[in-house]
């Protein structure tokens, strides 16, 4: 081989090598792009986002959605205020929204990105906890009450005191919640569930301590326990009772005569959200009437989007699990953030759990 052709051979080989290397790097780059879809990280209550909704959103917006679950507003708050940063969407209830606004934990929404906000009923907007809806969009509403298995318990219980009856030892669960669970004892004692009287709270704490040996489990996700028949009574939220009743038709739901709590759960974006614009797209998506109707069918909580009702089966449009009578409504209280006194609720709850 002449020197000239030798040089040509080497350089040809080298350029082949460069081409090979280039193609390799490009392949790696393109592959990694494929995997790096935008990701929406949702932190919410159990039974709040169906697989169907998650998948449809992923497909339409070409993103991945990851869902993580909490069982109480206080758990959500503890995580965020301890510096959890990955979440794009959270769903605090009313009183927790006002607390989080005060603590600067929420991002201001850009309403230009949420045109479907107009679909929300005026009944659910401009509430005390966020008067201009600068930080929150209402998602669902519901109550806390007692789910019971009517094939075992008859007549229907009408008082919280049923959860203190020794015959039901180990056959019922209570919400695992520093505000909802004391609320039961406070209402039973005839007090407001927002009391800031230390003596009233102490009495409620004693009641719950006395009840503790009877409780099978403190659990905010009572649905599965009810369906499996692990409990025949549960202090739980209305939608969870309704969802259980779908699978086990003997399950009924009652709001005891002493009264109970009601809530609006909202959708918010934490200040630390990595994907705020995508989060706003998701919020806007949830407010499409047909999507919102699917959510209502799945969660069994009330919808804040009246146009969604047209897409709902008739029984869901006025079911008594969702729409209590006027009389029952009058017995309900909204849980309020009680500022510094809130610590006393947390402390009482810790003491009960530690017993
Ligand atoms: C849904 C729980 C409802 C949340 N499983 C009560 N705020």
Could you explain the architecture of this structure?
The chain has 355 residues and is an alpha/beta fold. It has helices at residues 3-35, 51-61, 73-81, 94-102, 180-188, 198-211, 223-228, 238-247, 276-286, 289-299, 314-318, 326-330, 342-354; strands at residues 39-44, 64-69, 89-90, 136-149, 172-174, 217-218, 233-237, 251-254, 260-268, 302-303, 332-334. The strands form 2 sheets. Strands 4, 5, 6, 7, 8, 9, 10 and 11 form an 8-stranded mixed β-sheet that branches. A 3-stranded parallel β-sheet has the order 2-1-3, covered by helices on one side. Helix 6 packs parallel to helix 13 (342-354). The termini are far apart. The structure holds pentane-1,5-diamine.
What's the helix and strand layout?
Blueprint: H1 3-35, E1 39-44, H2 51-61, E2 64-69, H3 73-81, E3 89-90, H4 94-102, E4 136-149, E5 172-174, H5 180-188, H6 198-211, E6 217-218, H7 223-228, E7 233-237, H8 238-247, E8 251-254, E9 260-268, H9 276-286, H10 289-299, E10 302-303, H11 314-318, H12 326-330, E11 332-334, H13 342-354
Parallel strand pairs: 1-2, 1-3, 5-6, 5-7, 9-11
Antiparallel strand pairs: 4-7, 4-8, 4-9, 4-10
Helix pairs in contact: 5-6, 6-13
């Amino acid at each position: 081989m002449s020197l000239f052709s030798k040089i040509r051979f080497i350089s040809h080989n080298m350029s082949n090598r460069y081409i090979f290397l280039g193609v390799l790097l490009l392949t790696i780059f393109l592959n990694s792009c494929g995997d790096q879809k935008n990701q929406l990280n949702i932190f919410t209550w159990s039974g709040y986002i169906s697989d169907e909704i998650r998948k449809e959103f992923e497909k339409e917006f070409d993103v991945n959605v990851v869902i993580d679950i909490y069982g109480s507003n206080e758990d959500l708050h503890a995580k965020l205020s301890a510096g959890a940063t990955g979440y794009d969407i959270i769903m605090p209830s009313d009183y927790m929204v006002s607390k989080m606004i005060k603590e600067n934990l929420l991002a201001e929404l850009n309403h230009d990105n949420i045109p479907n906000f107009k679909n929300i009923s005026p009944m659910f907007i401009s509430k005390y906890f966020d008067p201009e809806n600068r930080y929150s969009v209402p998602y669902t509403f519901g109550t806390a009450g007692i789910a019971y298995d009517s094939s075992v318990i008859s007549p229907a219980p009408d008082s919280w005191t049923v959860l203190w009856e020794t015959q039901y030892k180990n056959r019922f669960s209570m919400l695992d919640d520093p505000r909802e669970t004391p609320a039961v004892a406070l209402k039973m004692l005839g007090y407001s569930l927002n009391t800031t009287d230390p003596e009233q709270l102490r009495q409620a704490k004693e009641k719950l301590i006395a009840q503790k040996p009877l409780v099978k489990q403190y659990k905010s996700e009572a649905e599965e326990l009810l369906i499996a028949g692990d409990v025949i009574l549960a202090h739980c939220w209305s939608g969870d009772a309704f969802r259980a009743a779908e699978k086990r038709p003997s399950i009924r739901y009652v709001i005891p005569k002493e009264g109970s709590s009601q809530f609006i759960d909202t959708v918010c974006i934490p200040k630390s959200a990595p994907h705020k614009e995508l989060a706003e797209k998701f919020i806007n998506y949830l407010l499409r009437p047909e999507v919102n109707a699917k959510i209502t069918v799945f969660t069994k909580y009330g919808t804040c989007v009246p146009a969604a009702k047209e897409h709902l089966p008739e029984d869901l449009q006025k079911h008594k699990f969702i729409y209590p009578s006027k009389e029952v409504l009058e017995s309900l209280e909204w849980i309020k953030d009680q500022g510094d006194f809130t610590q006393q609720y947390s402390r009482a709850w810790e003491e009960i759990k530690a017993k």
